Amino acid sequence: xxxxxxxxxxxxxxxxxxxxxxxxxxxxxxxxxxxxxxxxxxxxxxxxxxxxxxxxxxxxxxxxxxxxxxxxxxxxxxxxxxxxxxxxxxxxxxxxxxxxxxxxxxxxxxxxxxxxxxxxxxxxxxxxxxxxxxxxxxxxxxxxxxxxxxxxxxxxxxxxxxxxxxxxxxxxxxxxxxxxxxxxxxxxxxxxxxxxxxxxxxxxxxxxxxxxxxxxxxxxxxxxxxxxxxxxxxxxxxxxxxxxxxxxxxxxxxxxxxxxxxxxxxxxxxxxxxxxxxxxxxxxxxxxxxxxxxxxxxxxxxxxxxxxxxxxxxxxxxxxxxxxxxxxxxxxxxxxxxxxxxxxxxxxxxxxxxxxxxxxxxxxxxxxxxxxxxxxxxxxxxxxxxxxxx
Length: 390
Ligand SMILES: *Cc1c(COP(=O)(O)O)cnc(C)c1O
Known about the structure:
The protein is an alpha/beta fold. It folds into two domains: 9-253, Aspartate Aminotransferase, domain 2, CATH 3.40.640; 257-389, Aspartate Aminotransferase, domain 1, CATH 3.90.1150. It is built from twelve helices and twelve strands. It has helices at residues 11-17, 44-49, 62-75, 86-97, 112-124, 166-175, 188-191, 225-238, 244-276, 295-301, 318-327, 373-389; strands spanning 79-83, 103-107, 128-132, 148-154, 179-183, 201-205, 219-223, 281-285, 308-313, 332-333, 343-346, 363-367. The strands form two sheets. The protein has a seven-stranded mixed beta sheet, sandwiched between helices. The chain has a five-stranded mixed beta sheet with strand order 8-9-12-11-10, with helices on one face. Strand 4, helix 6 and strand 5 (179-183) form a beta-alpha-beta unit. Helix 4 runs parallel beside helix 5, helix 4 crosses helix 8 (225-238) and helix 11 (318-327) packs antiparallel against helix 12 (373-389). The longest helix has 33 residues, at 244-276. The termini are far apart. The structure holds pyridoxal-5'-phosphate. The site of pyridoxal-5'-phosphate (PLP) has 15 residues, from helix 4.
């Protein structure tokens, strides 16, 4: 952190200055992109004692330090590791804190590939997995076991946007001796700071809003003081370091993340409100709407909403969902959100064991990009019309 950012300032001011110190590198505004495997030592004694700041490419460079320190500022964390994808940002901390014979609690509305990892690799390594109701709150006490070592949260839930009572879950989990992790990709640390609410480890798919342009894969994992050493050890043991150009692109993306998110938020809420009154829409799943069952939690804990939400069509099945998607002209059909362009996808919810899928009709997830709202609204009108005719 440089001197200028130490006083309390607004998010956009912080984003403009965190993570680099121009005068440590000849005054250039941006940090260098260091491509490195080998780091040289000046003499044998320094080499034997590894007594210098950088020692090996996988263990950090000025480029990874710049992004990690920016993330520490945003998250309020003791340390941050950078990994090659958002999925690795989920799997690495789980591997760091779980051993054979342990039990992990995972929210049932979790990002699907996280479930796949738990059901295949964690199960094979002898870790017992239980999925819990996203609405459980302090009720997770009922599914805690003496060997529960990790409680994984994600709010709002993937595809269906259930809100979780994070402070209530943290209290119960800590009482039982478990570490609490949160996949906070939706809100980013600008709209929710997990560690401020007692979470131990904050996970972000930086692929999404931090990168912001659908061209980079990266994950960040930020830990509090108590969990940092163990997380860092696992990162070093696994060797899953991030590539320098990708790290640089995410640092670049962070500079504009605040203004992009404001636009995503405003456009998404405008369209969500309009969709609520449209024929053919049974429900809009957006925690920023007063009608959402998790709205009070969202208002209590979050300071904003990003651009991703779902709608439940009023009746129909796959045919109607496909007619909706195929009528779209500005929305692309694709998965990895957080970029500048709008996207739509038919959400598959047959993996849920506790949190059941909405019954009224197909669930369509929308990522509202940076385009003009009027054009997106016209596109959605066309799509609803096509679904009604299907
Ligand atoms: C996209 C996503 C991830 C994974 O990110 P990748 O970089 O695509 O691997 C993890 N968690 C959530 C909630 C996501 O939306």
